[in-house]
């Protein structure tokens, strides 16, 4: 992973890129014969008739079309779960998981996926799953295609090189990657690597509306980077294609690389984004605003404002609110909240929530700062204060999240999480 990659800037742009000059047809998408003996293939991420603002498709020009592949056979991956049907029934208690240790032996990104929570149904294009990945080895001649959902990858430890059909992305902790549903990709690691994945069965992630914020701010489109076209030099030779399709994994072989796209154009593209570019907005007067001000990307549902998923970050920022309790308030919401921590401390749980850990506060499950955070924030002198060296995030969804059997029995569930609020004694002084 030594060579520096080049990118195309701009979320949702109509990009175009050639890895070999002249590979892109001019003036049309599907000429009788494509330049350089390439095959044209269309990959669509939205119905053909979806409104223009949400239509997604790219044309790829490749050495062989992706239809040249053997038949698929089932592949076991017992820790990868899909949709509400594969979740467990649990009491409405808050749940938290300690960081999962990385395995001693070799385990690649796909084998290392561990589903923690699920909702919805990919066949209905509704809902999501939150997975951890625990990877110690690279996918070499193996590619993954997820027909069930888009993959939002949030590295927590270790840099990843993600090779996709449209080119390569280098992604390190603090950055995120977004891989469109149905696009082949593989993940190479640089050492033991851990992180989170939001698998989105619903509408593709887009930038949130900005309303009164105006035309700039939060995640700016130019900071999303798509890859330039790239094809694998070692074309011939056995390649494994692993497809997630209808909640199961399937495996096929082909005698050439699927990373054989010499040129492409369109607006269906993978992206990387560095969260350091997020223009954070907060209170410069008093009170703690709703966390929706930290939305990076959103997958809308069919009801305006009720997201299938909001991807929200809690990045380094100044806290300046006067005469205010600055951490999150105590709350119970109709939306369900899965949280992770990439680095540092989260202000509502400075000690108990560890980088690589996770928490689930489901619909109407009360939560908020632990006793220690409450005591501190209620009495601290309110000078301007920089919350630094921190990055927490939330996958927030309108559909209740169900933990998997692995999440409940895999060993990282904290038995006494709710004790962190036990110290909130009655202080009523009439
Ligand atoms: O519960 C949490 O920690 C996430 C969160 C943060 C915040 O600032 C306001 C509401 C909220 O759910
Ligand atoms: Fe919350």
TrEMBL record:
Domain spans labelled Homogentisate 1,2-dioxygenase N-terminal: 6-274
For this UniProt entry, the molecular function terms from Gene Ontology, in alphabetical order, are:
homogentisate 1,2-dioxygenase activity
Instruction: Tell me its family.
Output: Belongs to the homogentisate dioxygenase family.
Q: Which residues cross the membrane?
A: none
Q: What is the protein's species of origin?
A: Roseateles aquae
What is the protein's name according to its record? Homogentisate 1,2-dioxygenase
* The protein's Enzyme Commission number: 1.13.11.5
Q: Which Gene3D superfamilies match?
A: Jelly Rolls (2.60.120.10)
Name all Homogentisate 1,2-dioxygenase C-terminal domain ranges.
277-428
């Amino acid at each position: 992973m030594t060579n520096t990659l080049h990118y195309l800037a701009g979320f949702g742009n109509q990009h175009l890129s050639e890895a070999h000059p002249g590979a892109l047809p001019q003036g049309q998408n599907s000429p009788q014969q494509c330049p350089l003996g390439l095959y044209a293939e269309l990959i669509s991420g939205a119905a053909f008739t979806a409104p223009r603002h949400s239509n997604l498709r790219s044309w790829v020009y490749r050495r062989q079309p992706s239809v040249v592949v053997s038949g698929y056979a089932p592949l076991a991956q017992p820790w990868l779960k899909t949709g509400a049907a594969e979740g467990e029934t649990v009491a409405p208690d808050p749940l938290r998981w300690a960081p999962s240790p990385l395995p001693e032996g070799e385990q690649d990104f796909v084998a290392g996926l561990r589903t923690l929570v699920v909702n919805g149904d990919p066949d209905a294009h509704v809902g999501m799953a939150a997975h951890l990945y625990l990877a110690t080895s690279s996918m070499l001649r193996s590619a993954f295609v997820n027909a069930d959902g888009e993959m939002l990858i949030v590295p927590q430890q270790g840099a990843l090189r993600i090779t996709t059909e449209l080119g390569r992305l280098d992604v390190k902790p603090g950055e995120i990657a977004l891989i469109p549903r149905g696009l082949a990709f593989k993940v190479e690691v640089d050492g033991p690597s851990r992180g989170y994945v939001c698998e989105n069965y619903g509408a593709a992630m887009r930038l949130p509306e900005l309303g009164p914020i105006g035309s700039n701010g939060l995640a700016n489109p130019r900071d999303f980077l798509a890859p330039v076209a790239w094809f694998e030099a070692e074309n011939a030779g056995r390649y494994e294609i692993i497809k997630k399709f209808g909640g199961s994994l399937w495996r096929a072989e082909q005698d050439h690389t699927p990373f054989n796209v010499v040129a492409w154009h369109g607006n269906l593209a993978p992206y990387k984004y560095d969260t350091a570019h997020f223009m954070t907005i907060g209170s410069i007067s008093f009170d703690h605003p709703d966390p929706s001000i930290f939305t990076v990307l959103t997958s809308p549902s069919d009801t305006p404002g009720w997201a299938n998923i909001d991807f929200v970050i809690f990045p380094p920022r100044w806290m300046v609110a006067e005469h205010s309790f600055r951490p999150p308030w105590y709350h119970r919401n109709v939306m369900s909240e899965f949280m992770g921590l990439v680095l540092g401390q989260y202000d509502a749980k400075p000690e108990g929530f560890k980088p690589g850990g996770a928490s689930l506060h489901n619909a109407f499950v009360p939560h908020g700062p632990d006793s220690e955070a409450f005591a501190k924030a209620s009495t601290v002198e309110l000078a301007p204060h920089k919350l630094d060296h921190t990055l927490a995030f939330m996958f927030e969804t309108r559909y209740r999240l169900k933990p998997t059997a692995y999440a409940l029995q895999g060993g990282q569930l904290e038995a006494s999480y709710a004790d962190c609020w036990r110290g909130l004694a009655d202080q009523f002084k009439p």
